[in-house]
Design brief:
The chain is mainly α and 467 residues long. Helices cover 61% and strands 1% of the residues.
Length: 467
């Protein structure tokens, strides 16, 4: 008869701690919030503005209630203060806004997105956060593929928003939700109705899936299948700026990995110098050869009319250069201030197609400075979060975690996107900046921090605690 003692050698292994239903529901809710934020335009195209607004407001209320009920430990003095300052200044802009209705609506969107970002970062550990983002990306990738297959196989032609089949061919394909290009080699748009948005979502999915694979997450062969699907969407979206963003992400990744090999103080100096030379040289070459580069990518040198948009926006922004005309991200086409102001392909433009120019129009030089400091602080912290070995005591040989790569790679992608799109100002772009900035300040080391330790210990996970 076998006899067991409490000695660790002979004691039977304890069964894994069963996760409580509340914890599973919490993570599922975070995945829903992330998906809703990533697929914001899809909600509008599928259900309309009113339903989308109701979903956004309701989800914000639910997250606020859950945050109060769960009461995760938060160091309130360690908030992403530059991002908070930007939000507060945007709120104040309603006092002088030239389009108060648009300002009020978009401020509500900004406040809800900011709340959701800090809520998710507060209630999830780093590992859970990456896992939740990966789950949301899987939904985006899967639904985009299924949507395009459904349109091509069962509709057999273009599809208008709200699942309307057009009676006759539209004057410009920009109005279509899907152009039925899956099998003819054209650019596909997925559930976003926009190829550029699909490309950046697919690029984010590639980054997250690769990090999960490197972290030896369960079901790694399945992760490879997800990466393949995301890569297919990324290539078929055919976004020139997204290709550039992918190249920058690769350069940043290589640089981070090289930085991690430095063995002595000052060993990173040569890598910083080399990185600066490559960055300056690459940007200079890209600007000088932009005509040829965009010709190879099948795009016009003015980025499909963006230079004209930038010129008109800058002209209006110059009339109120200090505090701007009032917050408006995105521009509401039903507002008389924007309706018909800048028209592209017969449609009223809803953004400046450049994050910095858009902020300058809305909040002037003050807003640009606040946004620049927000990104500078975020990039600075996320960079050292990625390149520094985890250390809080005399031990200096702890392994790096692939999880720490996500904020800096996402930041690099958003900075490039911001050169040709205003996406980083709204929805998942803004959510990512606030969420990662908040999380890094709360838990600057993976597994270490008040929220990380409390949540992990409650779930029976083993973590290393700071001295």
């Amino acid at each position: 008869m076998a006899v067991h003692t409490h000695h660790p050698v002979s004691a039977p292994p304890a069964p894994p701690v069963r996760e409580r239903t509340g914890e599973l529901l919490l993570r599922a809710w975070c995945v829903f919030v992330l998906f809703t934020t990533m697929a914001g335009t899809a909600w509008v195209l599928a259900t309309g503005e009113i339903v989308t607004t109701v979903v956004a407001i309701a989800s914000g209320i639910v997250s606020g209630i859950v945050w109060i009920v769960t009461r995760p430990p938060v160091q309130w003095r360690r908030l992403p203060w530059f991002a908070v300052a930007y939000v507060l200044f945007a709120l104040a802009s309603i006092l002088w806004s030239a389009w108060p209705a648009t300002t009020a609506v978009t401020l509500l969107l900004l406040a809800i997105t900011t709340l959701q970002a800090m809520f998710i970062a507060a209630v999830l550990t780093w590992q859970e956060l990456v896992r939740a983002i990966a789950s949301a990306c899987k939904w985006v990738v899967a639904l985009s593929l299924l949507f395009e297959v459904w349109v091509s196989v069962f509709i057999g032609g273009p599809l208008l928003p709200r699942f309307v089949i057009p009676v006759e061919k539209a004057s410009d394909p920009i109005v279509y939700w899907s152009r039925d290009n899956l099998f003819d080699g054209g650019r596909i748009q997925g559930i976003f109705g926009n190829a550029n948005l699909l490309a950046y979502a697919a690029l984010l999915a590639l980054i997250v899936f690769a990090i999960r694979h490197a972290a030896r997450a369960p079901h790694r062969p399945l992760l490879i299948a997800w990466m393949t699907a995301a890569a297919f969407l990324f290539l078929r979206a055919g976004s020139a700026t997204a290709f550039l963003a992918a190249a920058v992400v690769v350069v940043v990744l290589i640089t981070v990995l090289l930085m991690r090999t430095a063995q002595r103080p000052g060993g990173r100096t040569r890598y910083y110098i080399g990185y600066a030379v490559v960055a300056i040289g690459g940007l200079t070459a890209a600007w000088v050869l932009r005509d040829r580069i965009f010709e190879m990518l099948g795009r016009s040198a003015d980025l499909t009319g963006r230079e004209r948009i930038w010129s008109e926006v800058l002209e209006r922004a110059g009339e109120r250069p200090v505090a701007g005309w009032g917050f408006a991200s995105p521009w509401m086409p039903w507002d008389a201030a924007f309706d018909g102001w800048i028209v592209d392909h017969g449609q009223t433009v809803m953004q400046a197609h450049n994050m910095w120019i858009d902020v300058f129009l809305q909040l002037g030089v003050i807003g640009v400075v606040l946004m620049a400091t927000t990104y500078l602080a975020f990039i600075w912290r996320s960079w050292f979060f990625a390149v520094d070995r985890p250390r809080w005591d005399l031990r200096a040989d702890r392994p790096y975690s692939p999880v720490t790569l996500l904020p800096t790679l996402t930041g690099a992608m958003l900075l490039v996107q911001g050169l040709a799109e205003s996406g980083p100002l709204v929805l998942w772009g803004w959510l990512a900046v606030v969420m990662f900035a908040f999380k890094i300040k709360q838990a600057p080391l993976v597994g270490v921090g008040p929220a990380e330790q409390t949540l992990a210990l409650e779930r029976g996970e083993r973590i290393e605690r700071a001295a």
